[in-house]
Amino acid sequence: MVRIILTSLVLVASLTGCWGLGFGTPSPNKWPLRVFEADDYLRNHSQIFIPRRVINVGEDIYSAIGYALANMIMINGPDGIVIIDTTETMIDSWTAYEDLRNEIDDWTKPLVAIILTHFHTDHYVGTFRLLEHAETQGWNVRIFTHETTLDEMARSSVFKLYASRRGTRQFGDALVLGEELLNAGIGLESKHNDTIVNDTLVPTDTYRDNTTVQLAGLEFELMRTKGETDDQTSIWIPSKRALFCGDNLYEAFPNLY
């Protein structure tokens, strides 16, 4: 999940697509929720992700919500396009990217960079599909991560079986959507690739504590902000006064594992 904070406004930009709409918000004097209240609250929570859509959350900043667990963010810079996070599947990544591009009606600007906020699969797996298209266009795409991201991926792969079991419980992967599963909390449902993705992510640029880069005609500040993960990256665009804080901020707390 990626969040964008524009000055004092908290706006959607996440893997969960969180838009502070307040659907089904219970009265504060009724905690804990009774069973029927909790059911309504969870059903209304799905409206955050339905229908999937692209939202203009600030000047030249767009968020694709409801396409997968994670949101995909697009910054339309003067000299190109920058993407933040790419969802968990190749298909959903491409669908979100198409809709983002169509929102600005411009496929000529090159994709110059992809910034990944952290190593969780719902934030980076779709990167490979965007790189495939960029290669056909002759675009040289830089990929930014924290310097520990690849190590985190390797460490995670060691415990992949256990992590998969945990994820199945957390997101209700074995349940039927709409009947047994209302939503996955941070998104409508956890998505999976139709085929095994064998590609290995290779960042072109990494950083340690913080760094400033010029991308697509804009200045980006990348900062290590340990939170949900140790490699979490937050991105600040001074000219837009926009902060993208990854999974360090959710629509609803807590995210239970």
From TrEMBL:
From the Swiss-Prot or TrEMBL record, give the protein name. Answer: Metallo-beta-lactamase domain-containing protein
User: Native species of this protein?
Assistant: Ciona intestinalis (Transparent sea squirt)
Pfam families to which the protein is assigned, alphabetical? Lactamase_B
- Keyword Signal on entry: yes
Keywords on record: Signal
Note the Gene3D superfamilies from the entry: Metallo-beta-lactamase domain
Show which residues constitute the signal peptide: 1-20
Q: Where is the Metallo-beta-lactamase domain?
A: 69-256
Q: Which InterPro entries match?
A: Bact_Alkyl/Aryl-Sulfatase, Metallo-B-lactamas, RibonucZ/Hydroxyglut_hydro
SUPFAM superfamilies per UniProt: Metallo-hydrolase/oxidoreductase
Keyword presence, Signal? yes
